[in-house]
Amino acid sequence: MEKFPASVAIQVLPHVDTDEEVVRIVDEVIAYIKSTGVNYYVGPFETTLEGEYDQLMDIVKECQYIAIKAGCPQVAAYVKISFKPEGGVLTIAQKVTKYH
């Protein structure tokens, strides 16, 4: 199978009653993302991942299941995808390093 580079940003929004529950569930989603081994960057509103397109799409799908398994009855997600099959997708480092 051919590999295509991509960058994905995902914001998981659990529909729960308290901010504490939101943070707990989002923490579980981020722990899952970390466990995948892809390069990622946690920001205040979304987490950005970079890697192979199909793998990132599987991770995006699994993030929904992780939130539900964590006790969230309903979850929404906003996803941004940068996909360039021939390569050359801007990396996280290229986008943010100059600001840190």
UniProtKB/TrEMBL annotation:
Pfam families assigned to the protein according to its UniProt record, in alphabetical order: Thiamine_BP
Gene Ontology CC, one term: cytosol
UniProt cross-references to InterPro entries, sorted A to Z: MTH1187/YkoF-like (IPR029756), Thiamine_BP (IPR002767), UPF0045_domain (IPR051614)
Gene3D superfamilies per the UniProt record, alphabetical: 3.30.70.930
Residue ranges of domain Thiamine-binding protein in the record: 8-99
Family: Belongs to the UPF0045 family.
Protein name: Thiamine-binding protein
